[in-house]
Amino acid sequence: MNWALVTGGSRGIGREICAKLASMGYNVLINYKGNKEKAEETRQIVKNAGVYGELIPFDVADRQQVQDVLGKWIENNGDKIIEVLVNNAGIKDDVLLMWMKDEQWDNVLNTSLGGFFNVTKILVNSMLRQRYGRIINVVSLSGLKGLAGQTNYSAAKGGMIAATKALAQEVGKRNITVNAVAPGFIKTDMTAGINEAEMKQLIPANRFGTPEEVAHVVGFLATKEAAYVTGQVISVNGGLYT
Ligand code: NAP
Predict the structure, then answer these.
(1) Measured in Å, how far apart are the chain's first and last C-alpha atoms?
(2) What pLDDT was estimated at residue 241?
(3) How far apart are CA 51 and CA 132, in angstroms?
(4) Is the pLDDT of residue 127 over 90?
(5) In this structure, how many other beta carbons lie within 10 angstroms of the beta carbon of residue 85?
(6) Does the pLDDT of residue 242 top 80, yes or no?
(7) Closest by alpha carbon to 230, among 170, 183, 172?
(8) What is the mean pLDDT of residues 82-106?
(9) Homologous superfamily assigned to 2-236
């Protein structure tokens, strides 16, 4: 069976995406930045599904590191085909723009949007040669709607949404689909500081979502049968108006 690469697969939404793709029969390359212990836990979950799981730590924001580590993996594994890429790694660092430090802007943009470019550029070439691929970008409600205190994060995710639509047009003829999934409020480390009891009143489903619910939609987009869905942004947000 072929391979899927999930960036930020050690925890949260990325972990559940790894589990979902493993349950669909994909061997999974699990990327993370520094949390080896959590990444190992994900690998165990993937292994339990009866497929291979391999850890591939690199910082998606570091172009040279991505080229060195991912480039080398591809070089050393010429027989293995990565046909699904999920650009999930992302961070937030919320502050009003008037107080935002340069590095808060740079780090958030470089991780989500820069990470998308750094990783996708390497993998899209082999997908074009194979004439098959599934690229799924994990974006956010914030990138569709814009949220106060998140000009950096909204810009990063909005940029990924635009890039999703553009790339879908570039590669559609080669049976490569490019889509985005836009979660609302999902229970992970990233939202641990947000008061669910207060926020849920704004959400028609009256609760935060689970990483599994996001992974389910990613799994759908990764299927062969989703071949005619491309350039789309699918919200997974419990009905929050965007
Ligand atoms: P999370 O629990 O904070 O996990 C973040 C993951 O990204 C971890 O695996 C982390 O690796 C990895 N990561 C962070 N920076 C990285 C880098 N520079 N290079 C490689 N990996 C990196 O986050 P989450 O809530 O699951 O979010 C996953 C994605 O969904 C993000 O793109 C986020 O913006 C998006 N999202 C989340 C929500 C939500 O409500 N949770 C809503 C909308 C969108 P380490 O473990 O090694 O640190």
Answers:
(1) 38
(2) 80
(3) 21
(4) yes
(5) 27
(6) no
(7) 172
(8) 98
(9) NAD(P)-binding Rossmann-like Domain (3.40.50.720)
- Pocket perturbation via mutation, ligand 1, pick of 87, 160, 190 by most ligand atoms within 8 A of CB: 190
Average pLDDT over residues 158-187: 98
What does the pLDDT read at residue 75? 95
Is 26 one of the annotated active-site residues of the chain? Answer: no
Q: What are the residues whose beta carbons fall under 8 Å from the beta carbon of 188, sequence distance 6 or more?
A: 11, 12, 13, 211
Q: Which of 52, 132, 153, 228 is catalytic?
A: 153
Q: How much is the pLDDT for 1?
A: 73
Residues flanking ligand 1, CB < 6 Å: 7-14, 31-35, 38, 59-61, 88-91, 111-112, 138, 140, 183, 185-186, 188-191
Contact 29, 35 (CB under 8 A): no
* Residue with token string 């108006």: 241
In whole angstroms, what is the distance from residue 135 CA to residue 180 CA? Answer: 8
Q: Which residues contact 136 (CB under 8 A, 6 or more apart)?
A: 84, 85, 86, 87, 178, 179, 180, 181, 218, 221, 222
What are the Cα distances from residue 125, in Å, to 71, 111, 128? 12, 21, 5
The tokens of 26 are what?
Answer: 């994909």
Q: Whose CA is nearest to atom 9 of ligand 1?
A: 8
